[in-house]
Amino acid sequence: MLKEFKEFAMKGNVVDLAIGVIIGAAFGKIVASLVGDVIMPIVGALTGGLDFSNYFISLKSLAAGTPAPTTYEAAKKLGAAIGYGEFITVAINFIIIAFVLFLVVKFINKLKKDEPKPAPVTPADVALLTEIRDLLKARSGS
User: How far is CA 27 from CA 72, 84, 94, 101, in A?
Assistant: First the structure.
């Protein structure tokens, strides 16, 4: 059983999948940084300094005189809070990842050369029957 597991684990597909997962995780971090450190600050600047990460709805009522939290992290520490700004950021991450992957797949497909399909090989029995038909036609026509 150990030998079978070793054969399974070392198959090309399993190793390729593991490599894909590792590269995907690294790619996810790159895109998260791109969105969080580059795109969202630009969006914030264009929208007058809006920071989506701090958009939330606090579900916990505060005691009288307690200041309302100003950040999503502070609201989470106080209790239940809906962080819809985080959702917006994650949705933008997804859209960017999906678009980049679309472009990568499109580029890879463009690089693949369309090899001409070989002519279908006629089976021997069909070729023989065709030859017999042609001989019979030639005899009856003469």
Answer: 26, 24, 12, 10
Helix (H) or strand (E) holding 73: helix 72-78
Return all residues near 116 (Cβ < 8 A) that are at least 6 apart. Answer: none
Q: Is the pTM of this model over 0.70?
A: no
- What Rg value do the Cα atoms of the chain yield, rounded? 32
Give the distance, in angstroms, between the CA of residue 80 and the centroid of all CA atoms in the same chain: 32
Token pair, residue 23, equals 């590269």
* Fold of the CATH domain 2-141: 1.10.1200
pLDDT in tens, the chain (142 residues): 888 887 777 776 777 788 888 988 888 888 778 877 887 788 778 877 776 777 888 777 766 567 778 788 888 887 778 888 888 878 877 887 788 778 888 888 888 777 777 888 889 898 899 999 999 999 887 6
75 and 94 Cβ atoms separated by less than 8 Å: no
The closest of 35, 17, 13 to 25, measured between CA atoms, is 17
Residue 33 tokens read as 């940084």
Q: Where are the domains of the chain?
A: 2-141
User: Do you know the residue count of the chain?
Assistant: 142
